[in-house]
Every structure is written in structure tokens, then in C-alpha cells.
Design brief:
The protein has about 400 residues and is mainly alpha-helical. It is about 75% helix and about 0% strand. The protein has 15 helices and no strands.
Length: about 400
């Protein structure tokens, strides 16, 4: 028997594996949702705001993951795929516009935009891959579980208060949980999580792009905080500390990227399960950047104000999440574990009692100190291992 033909929209394996312009444009659109999430955390110090914002981040991140897989598995140079990516970018912007009011009057707008994105993708991929049932089954499985998650998403949109949070948390749990077991679907089974379908260099570059976008949002928040406030010594200090955070985060991430560029490490993310987890670990990193950025936004407005325990924990959770996310990513693709970064993550949480009730600019100083010390210790460890330090 002859093998089933490959769909015309599938990416050709001999084509360049670097992201093209439309993919960069899509990633740049994520500055807006990251900014909206940061602003929400910067203006609301409650634990409820942290929970709600984290749910929104998980929802908008899943759109990024599926769009990244879309352009990895299918040919992004085809007009139909490019138009789908552009339409998704518009949908993400609509979602972001509704985010500040998602738990009040615009919850249905956010849910409608979220499902319009997914239905548009399925409307292209499912019929476009009908010549190969195995490839078509991948999209059908994701669509099946999208339908299951639609129940709590829509139910949450028509409720309010804690009920909406619980229902949307259930929907997010279904989305991420089904991916971990291969989207088991009646009649067509589940995706083989050990199959190799991704393109490692392409996925790696897309992950780098979205992290750079998150850094860009931190720089934007830091700069606008100074631009739209009275220039004082404390605000200049906050601006310097916030930019310092962005630089240190960039250095920590770039150091990791250099260590993961070996072919044997990169090829692991071509397999479904490691490739999926690579996106999850980058979610943790981006969440850390958003939390740090929320601290920068709060500090820019009231640099000498004392903040709540929740706000202190949120700001310090930023470096902890970023460092822990890099540890998990490194472990998943190389088998190594950076103890310097793990200790740095724990230190960020451990200093909370010491900095609680201090002015918010001093909490930002603690963030930079932890990131800088982690970078220094990691470099010293590398030099010791290479014999450059006797």
C-alpha cells in the first residue's frame, strides 16, 4: 500500500527553518497583552488580582503556543497560513483589550475572541489536511478538547465573582491537562507524545523571540513610568533599577541560550512531549518577567510607598519564576540542573520577610541584587569547572 500524500499546506522539511516576518509580527503583538497584564497587577495589590491575571496569561499563552506550532508544522509562506496568523494577532489584541474588564463586563468578549481564534485555525487546518488522516487527526484532537473546555469558558462568561474564576481555571486546566496526555479523542486515539514532528531551530528561535518581547514590555513599562511622572531622584532610581532588571534578565537568558545550542540538546524539542514542555517552561519565564514588570510599574507611580505583603511576594516571585523556569528548561533539554539559579529562585522568596514594609524601590533593588548575584555565582562556577580559577 502506498503512503497517504502529504497535505499541500504542510511545511516542507527542506525549507529554511528560521521564523519569517509574519511570525515576528505576531510575536510583537504580544507586547500589548503583556502590558495589560502588567498594568492590572501594578494597580491591584490583592491576591485575587494575581490569580485572575495568571489565568489570563495562561489563556493568551496557549494561543501563542498553538500559533507557534501552526507555523512550525505548516508552511508560513502560504497566503492562507499568513492570513491565519495575522487574524490570530488581531484576536489576541481583542483579548488584550478586554483583559482589564474580563472579570466584570467584558468576559464574554474575551471568550468570544479566544474561541474565534481557535475556530478559525481549525477551519483551515482540518479541511486542509484531509488527504492525510494521521496529520488531520492532530488538529481534530485539539479541536475536540477545545470543545470540552468551551463549556466552563462559556459558563464562566455568564457568571461573576469567584464562580467565574473557578470555571475559567477549570477550562485552563482542561486545556493544559489534555495536552499532557496527548489529547485522547474517541475514535482516533491520542497523539504519540514520543513522535518527532517539530523543527528544533524554528521552535528555539520562536521561544527566544517571545522572551525578548517580554523583556521589551518591561523596558516599555520602565520608560513610560518615568516619562509620565514628575522626575524625582526616587523615580530616576526606580527607572535605573527597572532597566537593570531587564538587562540582567537578558544576560541570564542569553547565557542559557548559548549553553543550549549544541545539536544534541536542540534536537530533543522536536519530540512532542519535550517540545510541549519547552513552551511551558518559557511560560514560567515570561510570567516572571510580567511580575517583575508589575513591580516596576507600581514603583514608578509611588516609588517610596510601602506595599502589601501580596505585592511584595508578587514582585519577588518574578525573579524566582524566571530563574526556576530556566532551570526546568535546561534540565529538560540537557539533563543538567543549574543549582546557582535554583538557589537564586529560593533566595528571592526567602528575602520576603526582610523587605516587606520597605519602600517599593528597595524591593526592586532586592530583585536586581538577586539576579546579579545569580549571574556572578553561575559565572564563577563555570570558570571553576573549566579550570580558569585555580
Amino acid at each position: 500500500m502506498s503512503e497517504a500524500p502529504l497535505p499541500r499546506i504542510l511545511r516542507k522539511r527542506d525549507e529554511p527553518d528560521y521564523p519569517i516576518f509574519v511570525e515576528l509580527f505576531f510575536d510583537l503583538a504580544y507586547i500589548f497583552p503583556f502590558l495589560r497584564l502588567t498594568q492590572r497587577l501594578a494597580t491591584d495589590q490583592s491576591l485575587q488580582a494575581v490569580e485572575q491575571t495568571t489565568l489570563l496569561l495562561l489563556a493568551v499563552w496557549w494561543v501563542w503556543v498553538l500559533t507557534t506550532w501552526l507555523t512550525d508544522l505548516f508552511d508560513p509562506r502560504l497566503p492562507i497560513i499568513q492570513n491565519l496568523v495575522l487574524a490570530t494577532a488581531v484576536g489576541v489584541i481583542v483579548m488584550a483589550s478586554a483583559m482589564p474588564y474580563a472579570y466584570r463586563g467584558r468576559g464574554f468578549v474575551l471568550v468570544l475572541a479566544y474561541f474565534a481564534i481557535h475556530l478559525a485555525r481549525d477551519g483551515v487546518l482540518i479541511p486542509g489536511t484531509r488527504v492525510n488522516r494521521d496529520i488531520q487527526a492532530r488538529s481534530i484532537r485539539v479541536s475536540f478538547w477545545l470543545g470540552i473546555s468551551a463549556v466552563p469558558w462559556l459558563a464562566g462568561a455568564f457568571t461573576a465573582g469567584p464562580a467565574r474564576v473557578l470555571l475559567w481555571a477549570l477550562a485552563v486546566g482542561i486545556t493544559y491537562g489534555s495536552a499532557q496526555v496527548g489529547w485522547p479523542t474517541p475514535g482516533i486515539g491520542r497523539t504519540n507524545l514520543a513522535s518527532r514532528i517539530f523543527t528544533a531551530p524554528h521552535l528555539a528561535e520562536r521561544h527566544r523571540q517571545i522572551v525578548i518581547v517580554a523583556f521589551g514590555e518591561l523596558v516599555l513599562t520602565s520608560s513610560t513610568g518615568l516619562a509620565y511622572s514628575a522626575v524625582t531622584a526616587s523615580r530616576i532610581a526606580v527607572f535605573a533599577l527597572s532597566i537593570g532588571s531587564a538587562v540582567l534578565l537578558f544576560q541570564l537568558y542569553s547565557e542559557q541560550v548559548r549553553s543550549l545550542q549544541q545539536p544534541e540538546a536542540a534536537v530533543k524539542v522536536e519530540v512532542v512531549r519535550p517540545g510541549t514542555f519547552a513552551s511551558y517552561w518559557h511560560l514560567i519565564m515570561v510570567a516572571g518577567v510580567v511580575y517583575i514588570s508589575s513591580g516596576a510599574g507600581a514603583a514608578a507611580s509611588h516609588p517610596v510607598a510601602k506595599v502589601s505583603l501580596t505585592r511584595t511576594l508578587t514582585i519577588l516571585a518574578g525573579p524566582a519564576l524566571f530563574l526556576f523556569g530556566t532551570c526546568l528548561f535546561d534540565r529538560s533539554v540537557t539533563g543538567r540542573f543549574s543549582w546557582a539559579r535554583a538557589v537564586g529562585a529560593l533566595a528571592a522568596l526567602a528575602v520576603t520577610p526582610a523587605v516587606y514594609l520597605l519602600p517599593v524601590w528597595m524591593i526592586m533593588l532586592a530583585v536586581d541584587a538577586i539576579l546579579l548575584l545569580t549571574l556572578i555565582v553561575e559565572e564563577l562556577i563555570k570558570r571553576c569547572r573549566s579550570g580558569r580559577i585555580p
